[in-house]
Amino acid sequence: MWAALLLPVLVLADSLALQPPATGCQTSCGGVDVPFPFGIGPGCFLPGFQIECINGSTPMLPDDSYEIKVLNLSVMPRPEARVMLHIAFQCYDATDGSAKDGASFRSAVIKSAYRISDTRNELVVLGCTTFGFTSSGPWGRRDSSFASGCLAYCDNDGSAMDGSCVGIGCCRVEIPPGLTDNTVFFLNDSASTWSHQGLGFSPCDYGFMVEKNTYDFRVSDLNMDGSSTTKPLVLDWAIRSSNVSSSVDNMTCTEVKGTPEYACLSDNSQCLNSTNGPGYICNCTQGYWGNPYLIGGCK
Ligand SMILES: *[C@@H]1O[C@H](CO)[C@@H](O)[C@H](O)[C@H]1NC(C)=O
Ligand SMILES: *[C@@H]1O[C@H](CO)[C@@H](O)[C@H](O)[C@H]1NC(C)=O
Ligand SMILES: *[C@@H]1O[C@H](CO)[C@@H](O)[C@H](O)[C@H]1NC(C)=O
Ligand SMILES: *[C@@H]1O[C@H](CO)[C@@H](O)[C@H](O)[C@H]1NC(C)=O
Ligand SMILES: *[C@@H]1O[C@H](CO)[C@@H](O)[C@H](O)[C@H]1NC(C)=O
Ligand SMILES: *[C@@H]1O[C@H](CO)[C@@H](O)[C@H](O)[C@H]1NC(C)=O
Ligand SMILES: *[C@@H]1O[C@H](CO)[C@@H](O)[C@H](O)[C@H]1NC(C)=O
């Protein structure tokens, strides 16, 4: 299997106490609202929630290695960020079956505040002799504690059909909670099982997590340019640590309430433990709506 061992360095600021945003912070970028704890520029975001406004019009998550474009950020009713992420792919020479270009993506940004939403996304795998899977989480029986994947197969050039993702050229599967990266691995071996020799009509493996009900399989996607393709997906976010450089994610509601780090600053707000990964989120109590991370935010 092919894995990019890139370890992008987080460039986000360390900070001790959580603070409300400075005044005069930019509150949108390119038509996308940027509600606190997200923010643009120094003093405007909580640690881990920086947004970059590239060229004054394209909101991005800061990541040294990949461009992660932001489509939408929301605080209520659910803490979510919709982003565009690159797909993973692996292409082969159909004549001799040798591997050509490919990439299996991994983003460092997701590790801190974000997790890939297991309820809002699915894993899609495209190919004609392709087993694609995602794996993540802390060290388990193997090097991760979750794995989920599916097999896409086609007997011949004409067997895959537009709109049909049922295992012929395209398969889809639910993903587990807690996923911290969007890497998709593909099985390959020197024996014939996963060989792409003779598969001129489908020379590549593709895999991506994508927002449910947004991807419609096209046979022509079996020949798409993997390096330039991105797909929309939903990230859950939570306040996990006041120090994004630290690997300690130990903030739960009980531990953080009453400390200077407590981020639920509004009256009529409540603390909820995160349901996807460690940490906590704030919400307005029933009957109130707004931004629980701001003083007076829940109205
Ligand atoms: C199979 O994957 C390994 C990495 O795990 C890679 O070095 C090798 O080139 C791949 N072989 C083929 C035929 O794709
Ligand atoms: C920002 O502008 C530069 C120069 O015009 C351009 O090359 C680049 O692609 C732009 N970046 C984004 C994310 O729009
Ligand atoms: C962003 O998300 C909010 C809350 O889910 C929704 O009301 C809004 O329509 C979304 N905006 C876009 C551009 O998707
Ligand atoms: C954040 O964590 C890193 C790594 O554990 C540590 O070196 C650094 O001193 C911490 N920063 C603060 C402000 O606590
Ligand atoms: C989290 O763990 C760090 C290091 O073990 C500790 O210093 C800190 O007090 C803990 N924070 C909470 C909120 O429990
Ligand atoms: C949050 O999690 C902690 C630790 O697991 C638990 O003690 C606490 O009751 C939970 N709080 C809420 C509001 O669910
Ligand atoms: C936050 O509160 C709103 C309004 O009461 C509710 O609809 C929503 O489900 C709550 N969000 C979470 C994550 O519990």
Automatic annotation (TrEMBL):
InterPro entries: WAK_GUB
Keyword tags: Signal
Any one annotated GO CC term: membrane
Range of residues in the leader sequence: 1-17
Domain Wall-associated receptor kinase galacturonan-binding: 25-74
Cellular compartment(s): Membrane
Membrane topology: Single-pass membrane protein
GO molecular function (one): polysaccharide binding
Record's keyword annotation contains Signal: yes
Pfam families per record: GUB_WAK_bind
Protein name, per record: Wall-associated receptor kinase galacturonan-binding domain-containing protein
Organism of derivation: Lolium multiflorum (Italian ryegrass)
High-level lineage: Eukaryota, Viridiplantae, Streptophyta, Embryophyta, Tracheophyta
